[in-house]
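Troubleshooting log. The previous structure file for this entry was overwritten by mistake, so regenerating from the original sequence record. Sequence copied from the archived sheet and checked twice against the printout by T.R.
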Amino acid sequence: MPPPILVLLALVLAVLPMPARSQAAPPASKLTVFLDCRTSCDFDFLRQEITLVDWVRDRAAAEVQVLVTSQGAGAGGAEYTLALLGLRTMAGRGDTLVFTTNPTTTPDERRRLMAQTMAAGLVPFLVRRGDVRRLRITAADPGGQATGAARAPTVDRWRAWVFQVGLGASTNGDANYRSRNVDGSFNARRITEAWKVELESDYEYRDDRFTDAELDSVGNVLSEEVYTNLRRNWDIETLLVRSLGRHLSGGMRGVLRSDTYRNLRRALLVGPAVEYNVFPYAEATRRELAFQYGVGVEANRYVDVTIFDRTRESLPTHYVRANYQTRAPWGSANLRAEHRNYLTDGTKRRTEVGGHTNVRVFRGFSVNLYGEYNWIRDQITLRRGSGGATDVLLRRRELLSGFQYHLGAGVSYTFGSIFNNVVNPRF
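Regenerated output below.
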């Protein structure tokens, strides 16, 4: 008589479905669509609303790839771009649709606008495939518009200005630790085709207290020492940009800040800059290669005497910056580099390079890489004198460092059924 474990294994194998030899091509009953969302998408809602297609989880199994990207709009909403790319039997066909939300558009309104726009974009592919009998076309009131969509105003009493105010506070602790935090912000911006004006202000107060106690064998306190870490910082930043064409823009930036961690009682940085984008700014949601150069004056007043025996100083500075980003069917990539130094002393400089990428290597397999490295040679604000162990452990003050880095990598591999239609929200 066979062992019980062999009998159980035979029963399991008997009820399991036999795997298909290949899932390279799904059944031809419906149009297969792969959603490639690089922004906020409610995929469950989209699958429930758009049922005329088969949603698949791999681009290689799809006839249409829907690439969704977004960028901030002037009034505080967002502009969403849906690029519908034909694949396999639909190769060579495509379309691009755009819709814009208001700053007051709710998440439900946004997802309904996305579903409506996406469904409209898929109609030509369904017609081309011969699925006309599945369609039912209706028309809304010509004077109406989808709820939540941005409308071109006839009269704007705010003259395109948008304001935002925020305030927050928190506290936590236990018998040996206490932390209190207060932060606030105020933002104002005005964005038109010709001008971009932004004003941002932030304030943060943080108070941490640590108690190091020595106890006897029954828990009585023999001695204790209390360490405190108080940090305050605020900043006001302004930006004025003028469009000078499809590729060129000029601007002026100003920053006023205070930061006890960096030994800054007051710091002012102001100066002009110019930017050139190799690609038209209208294509920024899909690709961008921008070079920026700026000059300015930095005026600092310090809390304590610095390692260069200064309590205040003013220095001319300049920087050059390059940024490349792309969002394509194969994935996305962003690379950036910046170098800045003081014009009176080129040895006091800082160079930053970094980037991230997500690439689909083959069906179901993706690679994600990110990293950043800074060469630091411009710590002119450091306090004079060596920091004690408490300063190091509690991060009370900025310390001398010649570099800073952040690196990471990851891979993912998904296999199994290519279909992704079912939505089950239970539990």
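Residues 248 and 276 are 5 Å apart (CA to CA). Archived copy saved in two places this time.
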